[in-house]
Amino acid sequence: MARPPTDRAPESRCDKPTGARLDTGRIRAARDVIDPVFLDTPLYRCEALEPGLGCTVSIKLETANPVRSFKARGTELVASQLADRGKEAVVCASAGNLGQALAWSGRERGLAATVVASRHATATKLDRIRALGARLELVDGDHELARERAAAISKDEGIRLVEDSLDIETCEGAATIGLELVEALSSFDVVLIALGGGALVTGVGHVVKSCAPGTEVICVQPEGAPAMTRSWHQRRVVTTGSTDTIADGVAARRPILAVLDDLLLVADDAVLVDEASIITGMRMLFEHAGLVVEPSAALGIAAILEDRDRFAGRHVVTIVCGSNVDLDLYRSWVGTDSL
Amino acid sequence: MARPPTDRAPESRCDKPTGARLDTGRIRAARDVIDPVFLDTPLYRCEALEPGLGCTVSIKLETANPVRSFKARGTELVASQLADRGKEAVVCASAGNLGQALAWSGRERGLAATVVASRHATATKLDRIRALGARLELVDGDHELARERAAAISKDEGIRLVEDSLDIETCEGAATIGLELVEALSSFDVVLIALGGGALVTGVGHVVKSCAPGTEVICVQPEGAPAMTRSWHQRRVVTTGSTDTIADGVAARRPILAVLDDLLLVADDAVLVDEASIITGMRMLFEHAGLVVEPSAALGIAAILEDRDRFAGRHVVTIVCGSNVDLDLYRSWVGTDSL
């Protein structure tokens, strides 16, 4: 019987260049800067999910930390660099998870963090940003307007703007997840990764393609927020006019060209899933894995549900990337009214 | 700002003998035998719980692994020793979590595992024991009858009986959690530990009292299953006629003298909590930490809820020891009908 995928291989070769902006040496060095509370997260096979999915499923769990998402791997890099240079403030736009992470990393290093978010962002995420001591500014519009406002604050106040997925630290921070995957003794056939702005996929994808090029890297996005997936397929930036998905963490509509370029180098495929599959995925993770997840974190399971033949008999790892979820909505999704 | 409690101190002194049966050197060596998927579990501060509890709260999460409880730390020791000696079978009685863990560890090492359980044990735990390939035998009675039947099977078949809390491997496996706590850079004022048979408390308590004797070790048991707590207070074995608690994982009624002796050496206090507090604890862990837990894993939070003044302003760590829970009951406890 094979050992589970948590032992470390003594050394990964990682000698296949991807051409992406990311650097594997810098990613390794990032591990020394990121607070250990965010590193070496659980990676384990979840057999109870397998009868319903028809493949071997392992979970990389990024929710058991102080901000309940993977985003702090990136903000730890940004905040430590700013603190080293004597900076005192930082600003970002966020749908909620990056803001929490930047608030946490900033607070640890004496940086004043400002987070700009849509007034329609998930309330529990906004509450946590405030509780972590960040200044929260809300805009009457969607995440793209928040990005514009954050850029304006950065210019006006002369402070660092953290641009998720564009700024290399956000990608290379996320990429440390990839190191933990490729250094596991078990190998995976497929890695399923939520696609929003692109930092998680380009980060993890770069490391997987450098170190374990035989592993398929598949991005998953909701049909209601397909801009980056369409861009990947058309090999040019495609924007959309609006988004319509419960997966607030990946509801972007204006892809960044530099990120798309990286994505084209490291992703083997990009697929869209519908809302019903996302909800079923959340419910399966609750019922069979005992995991509370936000919709974005169920995209990988949703992708399996929508294309079982593709994954049949293969070993799939999916990154459970966040668990900051509105409780009333969550209860309606996984609650007593179903199953 | 203090760093979170995950960095490792370079070396722990651990030079205060407790007199318990456990050996800190063996516990350190156990880390080399236990599959890494069960080690170095998340340890993090959960600030969202703190306003409701009035103290600093860190969580040691033992649910993000293939069996969703801490029990495999012990069964890994047992199974590896048996496999090294060429043994082919093993038997235990279990309320459900030990059985899953022994089934998993046995399967990994080619050991045929038999698990004896009460017919009234939590169905989802029994299902998982079967799914992991163990032979499951049900008895018409409670856990104490299952213990008797397992002992009879051991005698009849000449195979190793694993007695939870009595067998030193079950205590020293659990004790590796203690090493991970004391090697965290942050120190804790109090460790709250679920008390059932006693392996978890004697294990973690031994290490904490050896390595960080200033940290208070408090056992928590339900009022409906108070045998070991009464025994601790009276310093002699006190049995009860029955148990009445939703916390199936700790519903024991016949304490083992050798375990009580250890408990008297390593525990600073033993407290009882009522069922309503356990349910509130489960609900708080769901709502503020995004954690699905079984009732036994909420005992620590319940203890804070019942004695806020005792913990006010202190840094408390609680071990979230399992998440194998009946879904319908769980939904009724944390569901839409409340809050």
Automatic annotation (TrEMBL), chains A, B:
Protein name per the record: Threonine dehydratase
Enzyme Commission no: 4.3.1.19
InterPro entries attached to this UniProt entry: Ser/Thr_Dehydratase (IPR050147), TrpB-like_PALP (IPR001926), TrpB-like_PALP_sf (IPR036052)
One Pfam family per UniProt: PALP
Cofactor: pyridoxal 5'-phosphate
Top EC class, one word: lyase
Taxonomy, superkingdom: Bacteria
Record-level GO BP terms: isoleucine biosynthetic process; L-serine catabolic process; L-threonine catabolic process
Keywords: Lyase, Pyridoxal phosphate
GO molecular function: L-serine ammonia-lyase activity; threonine deaminase activity
Keyword Methyltransferase: no
SUPFAM superfamilies referenced in this protein's UniProt entry, alphabetically: Tryptophan synthase beta subunit-like PLP-dependent enzymes
Gene3D superfamilies cross-referenced by the UniProt entry: 3.40.50.1100
Domain Tryptophan synthase beta chain-like PALP, chain residue ranges per copy: 38-322
Ranges where the record places region Disordered: 1-20
